[in-house]
Write a structure and sequence with these properties.
- The complex is a heterodimer of chains A (378) and B (307).
- Chain A has 378 residues and is of the alpha+beta class.
- Chain A has nine helices and 20 strands.
- Chain A folds into two domains: 4-94 and 170-247, P-loop containing nucleotide triphosphate hydrolases (Rossmann fold, 3-Layer(aba) Sandwich), CATH 3.40.50; 255-376, OB fold (Dihydrolipoamide Acetyltransferase, E2P), CATH 2.40.50.140.
- Helices cover 24% and strands 34% of the residues of chain A.
- In chain A, the strands form four sheets. A six-stranded mixed beta sheet of chain A has the order 6-7-8-3-9-10, with helices on both faces. In chain A, strands 13-12-11-14-20 form a five-stranded antiparallel beta sheet.
- In chain A, β16 and β17 form a beta hairpin.
- Chain A is globular.
- The two termini of chain A are 34 Å apart.
- In chain A, 39% of the residues are buried.
- Chain B has a single domain (83-306), classed as Orthogonal Bundle (MetI-like fold), CATH 1.10.3720.
- The radius of gyration of chain B is 26 Å and the shape is flat.
- The chains are: A alpha+beta (378), B mainly alpha (307).
- Chain A binds chain B through residues 68-70, 89-92, 95-97, 99, 101, 103-107, 116-117, 120-121, 148, 150, 164-165, 168, and chain B through 201, 203-204, 206-215, 217, 221-222, 225-226, 305-307.
């Protein structure tokens, strides 16, 4: 394991003394009567690759646009690098944004697009040319410098947009769905490239995405948003393994949710009577009082085939295989455990498909360990 | 065999469709542009005569099967040598230029405002631009006489406000022509500009702001170059008809306003000098083709840039 000092450097949010680089302080944005962003507070640290994750209309883009200065908060303040920027217009902020549509100027060449921001700063011609060359080289688009945006492919445009936003060496780079316009294959390689680039240049990135996979791969931390509010801010691992809300558990990846009621508690162990009539034994990091209605969230890959099924065994359910989704590396089995409930179980395809043990209509018992899920209240 | 026949028929159909497709515009241009042009050119090379129609024929059969063709270039000589016509041409071009610039200066902000207005208000604003067309053009120009005359609406208003002591002479001056032309041709500037500006991607302006560009500079660097095709189209729709404009100078400009359209009319109807009028029309066409070709080149270049 890494030592605490190094860990603090890698994860500044763990360090109580670290000063946040971006501070969003009780920010609200109303459009008419609609709260697009509702009293959000958030600290982002220098060098982070921070993702705002949520479905469309959750307020993530509005929050990003407020950081860029393209929208004014209805209430609250925004600080960047210690300075209050709430009232500073977009054109004077030390922040640059990559637009979802890339918003490249169609009447300018790649070179002119990248140079545009530098010209606004009245950077001397020679220095400007150097910086443009540097940026084009960094993103490996030097040979495209004389082209117009409509002579470029989607991936090339994304690079030009990135070069243009990075050219001014912003304190903060905002990316609105940076990979949204790329096809799936390109997106995967672009994810790694973006992370490598961010590590190399060391600029703080804040991205907005609705793609949970993208957020998981790239981010140091993720803020999951819903209906204008931030539900949970955590590392990708923590968001996946220890969601604090049903919504978060459900939004990120597949999950099985068992409703139930707390029967017994002892230290961090809890015994739950599920609505299926089975007893569930879980570790609970936030102990709940006896009788509290709770939901147990278990990821499909945490389930295993159970060979020792007992009528009164804990953490065991039984059902009939209804659907099999074969994904190549893994298969997802949808098992009907009660008329109302399907449980999803992911198994690695160790053996070729034809030799798989489970098939449609087959009865199967499943189990999981007490530490492989979380107990949620809302 | 039947299949073969069908194939051949279909092929012929397609060829026929192609001929019709390409042929129609050519037929249209030939009938309604080239033929009248040929007639006018023909008249411009003839001589006046007291006859019906009032010009001589260009050719006549003399004995022994000799066709005698008489091309009279005197009309063109008159047009180019008489300073009055030259002055009228220059004044027409000047009026058209000033009015095009005025229309652009007034029309651009209006088109921009309409293009950026909320959807529902946009329809209403567009209606307001088009609404004057529902009244006859002639009546609208006549109405301006009532507004601009010495004891008209404008002078009475200014007098009652105490801004002037005696009525301004606006009617029957060049100023009245400017006012009438700008009023009448403004929609032709606004509509193409509006069509262009509604297609403008406003995230480009946000991107410009984000990169440190103040709003006015963003307008100059982004909006203006991208709306150049609209500016060119609108300017052409104003400039070209205004050069040959006849009604407005006749009604608002008074007897001594030198506009080529008006002179043409006088030569044709008052002086019954068809050949001279035709020569003037041919020269006017020549004057208009030059800016037209220039603007089309410019538009082509911009279009090429956008691609």
């Amino acid at each position: 394991m890494t030592n605490p000092a190094e860990r603090r450097k890698l994860e500044p949010w763990q360090d109580p003394k670290a000063a946040p680089y971006v501070r969003i302080d009780h920010v609200t944005k109303k459009f008419g009567d609609v709260y697009a962003v509702d009293d959000v507070s958030l600290d982002i640290f220098q060098g982070e690759f921070f993702s705002l994750l949520g479905s469309s209309g959750c307020g993530k883009s509005t929050l990003l646009r407020m950081l860029a200065g393209l929208e004014r908060p209805s209430a609250g303040r925004i600080y960047i690098d210690g300075a209050d920027v709430t009232d500073i217009p977009a054109y004077s902020r030390p922040v640059n944004m990559m637009f979802q549509s890339y918003a490249l100027f169609p009447h300018m060449t790649v070179e002119q697009n990248v140079e545009f921001g530098l010209k606004q700063d009245r950077m001397p011609r020679k220095e400007r040319a150097e910086r443009v060359g540097e940026m084009l080289a960094l993103l490996q688009i030097s040979e495209l410098r004389r082209r117009k945006p409509d002579q470029l492919s989607g991936g090339q445009r994304q690079r030009v947009a990135l070069a243009r936003t990075l050219a001014k060496h912003p304190k903060l780079l905002l990316l609105d769905e940076p990979l949204g316009a790329l096809d799936k294959r390109l997106r995967e390689s672009a994810q790694f490239e973006l992370v490598n680039l961010q590590e190399r240049i060391g600029i703080t990135f804040v991205t907005v995405t609705h793609d949970q996979e993208e957020a998981m791969t790239m981010s140091t931390r993720i803020a999951v948003m819903n209906a204008g509010q931030i539900l949970q801010v955590d590392t990708p691992t923590a968001i996946y393994e220890y969601p604090e809300y049903r919504f978060v558990a459900d939004f990120i990846g597949l999950v099985n949710l068992f409703d139930g009621r707390v029967m017994e508690t002892q230290d961090d162990q809890v015994l739950i009577e599920s609505s299926l009539g089975r007893r569930l034994h879980m570790r609970d990091l936030h102990p709940h009082a006896i009788g509290t209605p709770v939901t147990v969230a278990i990821r499909p890959e945490k389930l295993q085939i159970c060979s020792t099924y007992q009528e009164n065994g804990t953490n065991q359910v039984k059902g009939v295989v209804e659907d099999i989704a074969y994904l190549g590396d893994v298969s997802i089995y949808r098992v009907r455990v009660s008329p109302e409930m399907l449980v999803e179980m992911t198994l690695t395809n160790v053996h070729p498909r034809t030799e798989q043990a489970l098939t449609w209509g087959q009865e199967v018992a499943m189990e999981w360990s007490p530490t492989s899920g979380v107990v949620l209240t809302e | 065999m039947i299949q073969e026949l069908c194939k051949r028929l279909r092929l012929r159909d397609r060829q026929l469709a192609r001929v019709v497709n390409i042929g129609t515009p050519y037929l249209w241009l030939g009938l309604f542009f080239l033929a009248p042009f040929a007639i006018v050119l023909h008249i411009s090379l003839a001589e006046t005569a007291l006859a019906q129609p009032p010009y001589t024929s260009l050719w006549e059969w003399v004995d022994d099967g000799v066709l005698q063709v008489r091309l009279n270039l005197q009309n063109f000589v008159t047009v180019f040598s008489d300073e009055l016509y030259l002055a009228a041409f220059l004044n027409s071009l000047w009026v058209a230029l000033v009015c095009t610039i005025l229309c652009l200066l007034i029309g651009y902000p209006m088109a921009y405002a309409i293009a950026t207005a909320p959807e529902r208000r946009r329809v209403m604003l567009l209606m307001l631009i088009i609404l004057p067309f529902w009244t006859s053009f002639l009546i609208r120009v006549y109405a301006w006489i009532g507004i601009l005359k010495p004891n008209g609406l404008l002078n009475n208003l200014l007098l009652s406000l105490g801004l002037i002591d005696q009525p301004l002479t606006i009617l029957h001056t060049q100023t009245a022509i400017y006012i009438g032309v700008v009023y009448s041709y403004l929609p032709f500037m606004i509509l193409p500009l509006f069509a262009n500006l509604t297609r403008l991607d406003f995230s480009l302006l946000e991107a410009a702001a984000d990169l440190g560009c103040r709003p006015f500079k963003a307008f100059l660097k982004v909006t203006l170059p991208l709306s150049l095709p609209g500016i060119v189209a609108g300017s052409m729709l104003v400039f070209i008809p205004v050069v040959g404009e006849f009604v407005i100078p006749d009604l608002l400009g008074g007897p001594d306003s030198l506009m080529i359209g008006k002179m043409l009319w006088t030569e044709f109807f008052s002086n019954k000098d068809w050949p001279l009028a035709a020569a003037l029309a041919i020269c006017l066409l020549g004057v208009l083709v030059v800016p037209f070709v220039m603007m089309q080149r410019l538009e082509h270049r911009i279009g090429g840039d956008e691609r």
